[in-house]
From TrEMBL, chain A:
This protein's name: Myelin protein P0
Subunit architecture: Homodimer and homotetramer.
Molecular function terms from GO: transmembrane receptor protein tyrosine kinase activity
Subcellular location(s) of the protein: Cell membrane
Pfam family, one: V-set
Location of the region described as Disordered in the Swiss-Prot/TrEMBL record: 228-265, 277-310
Chain's gene name: MPZ
Signal peptide limits: 1-29
From TrEMBL, chain B:
Residues annotated as transmembrane: 65-84, 96-117, 137-156
Main location: membrane
Name listed for the protein in its UniProt record: Peripheral myelin protein 22
Bilayer topology: Multi-pass membrane protein
UniProt xrefs under InterPro entries: PMP-22/EMP/MP20-like, PMP22, PMP22/EMP/MP20/Claudin, PMP22_EMP_MP20
This protein's record includes keyword Ubl conjugation: yes
Keyword terms, alphabetized: Cell membrane, Glycoprotein, Membrane, Transmembrane, Transmembrane helix, Ubl conjugation
Keyword match Glycoprotein: yes
Localization, UniProt: Cell membrane; Membrane
Pfam families, sorted: PMP22_Claudin
Gene Ontology cellular component terms for the protein in this record: plasma membrane
C-alpha cells in the first residue's frame, strides 16, 4: 500500500449506520461518524474522516472540534477547532504545523489530515460537532495506529486473487470464442469460394442437358423451404448450428471431389450448396426481395454457367 | 450410457462436497486442543467443552489459500452448471470442453491452495506439535478427483 493512502474502515458501514439512524431515531440529536480505526505508516499522512447527521440545517455557527488523547494518556487535548467559517489549528503542541483542514461544512464534512506521522501520534482522536441549535449528541472516536509498514488489510489479497483469476479466466474464454468465431467465418468464406470455383468448372459441359436443368430447380425449391426456416433458427442457435452446416458443406465438397463421373446426383449436390451460400448472404441484407426468387435465379444462372461471383 | 452419466455426476458432486468440506471445516491443523482452518483458530479448553475461536491472521499467504479454495469451489460449481447446460445444448458427438476446462481449473486451484498451505503454514502457526487435520487431507484428495473428472469431461463425447 502506498504511504500516501492510509487505510480506513469501510464506508458502507457508515452508510448503513446513517440510514438506520435516519429511519430509526426520530430524536433530535446530532450524530457524529468517524472511522473506528485508521492505520498509517511513519512519515506518511493520514486523513481522519468526520461526518455528522443533524436534524437541523447546517447553520453558520457550526463548529467542529478534534481532540487527541495519547495512547496511555489520561487527558484529551484540543488540537483543532473550526468555528464561524474559520479553522483554528494547534500551533504549540505535538501536532504543530502538521494538521490540515480538508472538511467542508456544507457537505457535513469535518475531516482533517495529519502529516508526517510519528510513533508518538498513536492514540485516540475525538470528533465533536455542534450545529446550533442542534447541540445534543455523542462524539465519535477514531484510533490511529502508526506502523513502520502498513499491514495488508484483511481481504485485500483474497479479493485480489479471486478477482484476478476470475477476470483472467473470463478474458481467456472471451478471447477463445472470438478467435474461433473469426476462424470459422474465414473457413466458411474460403470453402464457399472454393466450391463456387469448382462448380464453374463442372457445369459448363452439362448445360445443354434438359433433365439436368429441371431436377436441380425442384431441389432448389425443396431446399429453400428448409433454408428459410433455418435462417430464422440460425440466429437463435448461433454458432453451433452454423458449424454443423459448414461441416456438412465440407463433407459434400469432399464427396464431390471423389466422385469423378458427372452424374445427376453430383449436380444436385452442387446446387444445394449454392443455395446455402445464397441463404447466408441473404442473412445480411433485409428481406426485401423474395428470397425464393433469387435463389431460383441463382440456381438457373449456375446451370447456364454464368459466373455469379464478382 | 445412463450409468456413465450418473457416474460422472456422482464424481463431480463428490468433488464438490470434498471442496466444500475442506474449505469450511475447522480441521486443517489439529493438536492438543487446537483446531484451525482457513478462517478461524479455535481452542478447546482442557477442562470443559468451552471453545474459543479467533479469526485467523491476515497473513497474505493464508489469504491466497482462502482465495484459491473459494475459486476452486466456484469453478467446480460453474463446471457442474455448464455440464447440465451442455448436456442439453451440445450437438451429438461434441465434447464437454468448457465443463472439463473449468473442472481442471478447480483441481489446479485446490492443488495450489493445498501446496501453499503446506509450504507456508508455519508463517501463521507457531506451534510445532500440530499435525495436519482431515480437512487438509480432503483438499489433497479433491485435487486428483477434480482433475480426473475434468479429463473425463474432455474425453467424453455426447451421445443422444
Amino acid at each position: 500500500m502506498a504511504p500516501g493512502a492510509p487505510s480506513s474502515s469501510p464506508s458502507p458501514v457508515l452508510a448503513v449506520l446513517l440510514f438506520s439512524s435516519l429511519v430509526l431515531s426520530p430524536a433530535q440529536a446530532i450524530v457524529v461518524y468517524t472511522d473506528r480505526e485508521v492505520h498509517g505508516a511513519v512519515g506518511s499522512r493520514v486523513t481522519l474522516h468526520c461526518s455528522f447527521w443533524s436534524s437541523e440545517w447546517v447553520s453558520d455557527d457550526i463548529s467542529f472540534t478534534w481532540r487527541y488523547q495519547p495512547e496511555g494518556g489520561r487527558d484529551a487535548i484540543s488540537i483543532f477547532h473550526y468555528a464561524k467559517g474559520q479553522p483554528y489549528i494547534d500551533e504549540v503542541g505535538t501536532f504543530k504545523e502538521r494538521i490540515q483542514w480538508v472538511g467542508d461544512p456544507q457537505w457535513k464534512d469535518g475531516s482533517i489530515v495529519i502529516h508526517n506521522l510519528d510513533y508518538s501520534d498513536n492514540g485516540t482522536f475525538t470528533c465533536d460537532v455542534k450545529n446550533p441549535p442542534d447541540i445534543v449528541g455523542k462524539t465519535s472516536q477514531v484510533t490511529l495506529y502508526v506502523f513502520e509498514k502498513v499491514p495488508t488489510r484483511y481481504g485485500v489479497v483474497l479479493g485480489a486473487v479471486i478477482g484476478g483469476v476470475l477476470g483472467v479466466v473470463l478474458l481467456g474464454l472471451l478471447l477463445f470464442y472470438l478467435i474461433r468465431y473469426c476462424w470459422l467465418r474465414r473457413q466458411a468464406a474460403l470453402q464457399r469460394r472454393l466450391s463456387a470455383m469448382e462448380k464453374g468448372k463442372l457445369h459448363k459441359p452439362s448445360k445443354d442437358s434438359k433433365r439436368g436443368r429441371q431436377t436441380p430447380v425442384l431441389y432448389a425449391m425443396l431446399d429453400h423451404t428448409r433454408s428459410t426456416k433455418a435462417v430464422s433458427e440460425k440466429k437463435a442457435k448461433g454458432l453451433g448450428e452454423s458449424r454443423k452446416d459448414k461441416k456438412r458443406l465440407a463433407g459434400r465438397a469432399g464427396d464431390r471431389g471423389s466422385g469423378v463421373e458427372p452424374s445427376k446426383g453430383a449436380k444436385v449436390v452442387v446446387i444445394e450448396m449454392e443455395l446455402r451460400k445464397d441463404e447466408q448472404s441473404s442473412e445480411l441484407r433485409p428481406a426485401v426481395k423474395s428470397p425464393s426468387r433469387t435463389s431460383l435465379k441463382n440456381a438457373l444462372k449456375n446451370m447456364m454457367g454464368l459466373d455469379s461471383e464478382k | 450410457m445412463l450409468l456413465l452419466l450418473l457416474g460422472i455426476i456422482v464424481l463431480h458432486v463428490a468433488v464438490l462436497v470434498l471442496l466444500f468440506v475442506s474449505t469450511i471445516v475447522s480441521q486443517w491443523m489439529v493438536g492438543n486442543g487446537h483446531a484451525t482452518d482457513l478462517w478461524q483458530n479455535c481452542t478447546t479448553s482442557p477442562s470443559g467443552n468451552v471453545q474459543h475461536c479467533f479469526m485467523s491472521s491476515a497473513n497474505e499467504w493464508l489469504q491466497s489459500v482462502q482465495a484459491t479454495m473459494i475459486l476452486s469451489v466456484i469453478f467446480s460449481v460453474l463446471s457442474l452448471f455448464l455440464f447440465f447446460c451442455q448436456l442439453f445444448t451440445l450437438t451429438k458427438g461434441g465434447r464437454f470442453y468448457i465443463t472439463g476446462v473449468f473442472q481442471i481449473l478447480a483441481g489446479l486451484c485446490v492443488m495450489s491452495a493445498a501446496s501453499i498451505y503446506t509450504v507456508r503454514h508455519l508463517d501463521w502457526h507457531y506451534g510445532s506439535e500440530n499435525s495436519y487435520g482431515f480437512a487438509y487431507i480432503l483438499a489433497w484428495v479433491a485435487f486428483p478427483l477434480a482433475l480426473l473428472s475434468g479429463v473425463v469431461y474432455v474425453i467424453l463425447r455426447k451421445r443422444e
